[in-house]
Model the fold of this input.
Amino acid sequence: MSSTDSATLQHCARQIADAGRALGALGWTPATSSNFSMRLDAEHAAVTISGRDKGNLGIDDIMVVDLAGRAVGTSARPSAETALHTQIYRRFPQAGAVLHTHSRAQSVASRLFAPRGVVRFEHWELQKAIAGYTTHDSVLEVPVFANTQDMSELVRDVDAWLDAGKALHAYLIDGHGIYTWGRDMPEARRHLEALQFLLECELDLIKLRGQQP
Amino acid sequence: MSSTDSATLQHCARQIADAGRALGALGWTPATSSNFSMRLDAEHAAVTISGRDKGNLGIDDIMVVDLAGRAVGTSARPSAETALHTQIYRRFPQAGAVLHTHSRAQSVASRLFAPRGVVRFEHWELQKAIAGYTTHDSVLEVPVFANTQDMSELVRDVDAWLDAGKALHAYLIDGHGIYTWGRDMPEARRHLEALQFLLECELDLIKLRGQQP
Amino acid sequence: MSSTDSATLQHCARQIADAGRALGALGWTPATSSNFSMRLDAEHAAVTISGRDKGNLGIDDIMVVDLAGRAVGTSARPSAETALHTQIYRRFPQAGAVLHTHSRAQSVASRLFAPRGVVRFEHWELQKAIAGYTTHDSVLEVPVFANTQDMSELVRDVDAWLDAGKALHAYLIDGHGIYTWGRDMPEARRHLEALQFLLECELDLIKLRGQQP
Amino acid sequence: MSSTDSATLQHCARQIADAGRALGALGWTPATSSNFSMRLDAEHAAVTISGRDKGNLGIDDIMVVDLAGRAVGTSARPSAETALHTQIYRRFPQAGAVLHTHSRAQSVASRLFAPRGVVRFEHWELQKAIAGYTTHDSVLEVPVFANTQDMSELVRDVDAWLDAGKALHAYLIDGHGIYTWGRDMPEARRHLEALQFLLECELDLIKLRGQQP
Done:
């Protein structure tokens, strides 16, 4: 990784650790689940090492991978789901940070909406927190993909969605959690915060109205 | 803004920043939504600058506007919804502080009660936390207006409600959040805290009783 | 109040302020509601002064009353509901502390169970946290009295319940909150914590089972 | 207890106190309920003393028992439910720590699932947080035993389940709480955190789907 200097890595690792601490405190990373990454340059990303406590990350818990997901300059093992992070960097040249969390609302909504395959948000002012949305009078679709321990199946699902020309700002995995991203870490965190809020609101409305999706 | 001295502005900006920090910590200002203001004098108000993180405001995130919503002594852009704040100062000469937040209960209740156009509170002791209410044996009505990105439509809705001679202590915007106010910042915060509590209680009762409004 | 020394008052005031801070942080004292007291001797109690912020009490926010609820040695006005506190000290010679709070679960449960007039707890291990209960295989009844701004009506309701020979460890007021007490402040707080837990559990079971009480 | 040195006891007591503080802060140990233990050696365990505040444990709140549950080297009385802890150490030679807590979700789920006798988890990614589970495509069963103040009945229920050859990673007691364990304290805490998350998710799905178990 000759092209990436160590200062960039340090800077990204610190932003990842800060995000992990904040998201862990919210209870969105239970029991060592979740993983986070940032793009370092056109060919590399910094990603959390497998199995570490995501709510208490240090610089040493972050490693470098190339965009094929291979470890660079270390014998550490990246998070099992690294392939999903590097796919985002390959498919979205603008993406600078990817967050995968596992809150209760994310897990429950993924189960509830899995039969339909998508969560559809409409009429919420907070849709404007997603880059490119300027009005509540819009539709935001978040697909729900089937869970699998084989990451290549999920990579295919994401590719198929994108290849069909559909907009993608985040996706849920059934019984599991969410992936979202942004141009930089603040935008990725704003997207995650907004999606969590919108999922909680939708679940609340279903409880109140007594109608399933 | 010759008539407003800088000490008053500093004092108001500090109260606004304190309110933002407290309300942000409660999760009521997700993803840079929400805005807050205080009256400076008969013709001016201090209001949050557009797009700032409302949970972490400094003195520099507050600006002065006249009661038509025009920036005074600065090139900063006030919050998009400034017109709703200045309307309150024009229509309620006693109003000293206006708070707009965006909690989950506020957003969800606004969607649920939008078809009816109003949330009606009765039989709650905490209605006494609203200025002028001295008994639970009263009715507190909070209208729900349709959401729009055109503030002049909301200004018309509020004017129409007031011009019909109806009491107004707060209003919801569908899919969005709440506006409330008070003589000073402590009263505005007490009103907001009480309304959030009452909305959460009403939503809970609907879940328990299984009856929609 | 010649018979009560100032050290006892200080000691009680500190326990009341500590309880207020802890209960306020839990959100059980919204918008200056709630009030707390401790017995000073056979004829006097220390009680919170009307209108103070119950989550941020100082020694100066506590005053002395006799058991008829009259201010002693001060021109301050005791909490409006002081008569309910002094009634407990008169009727329960062992009672050393009385807590009145106003959590969401307390308010909502009071509304839901008001038509039945009582919340009946059975089969919960935590019933053992109430003094005198040694098994989950028992019945704990908490009456729900109608709300009124006239304290003498509530005093009559409590007297009528006790005069009928029924056990009383706490009561709810419709749309309002709970009163409970104990031999000393730690026991009163344990009772309140257990009752809040039990009310939340009962409400959750109703939501899950879809059956109203 | 000649075979256990004091350093081991100190080390375990500190881990127990840390766990109690963390679990108490989450509200999972209401009103002095709950108890915790760690294995000291093949014949002894450290366990919380009866009646202490589990959210604020010190070294002096922990005592030594043999695996028959008898106090060793102290006249203190161990938690009433010590027999359930020592049973785990006898039946699971690998078990190093046992946690019993009493969260609202644990209490409510135990009531709801008691008629069926078991909570069955399927399709959740977080099942992988339980030792031995490597895929969401598995079944995790947690039995619900009837509550009783006679610990020997619960010991019989646990023995009967194990003697039937069924896997056991945790169990609920009706109207009461959960027991779970692990090779060491971090694993026991990870199991507890995952089970709490899974119970909350199952309860949420039932509320959303309106179908009882």
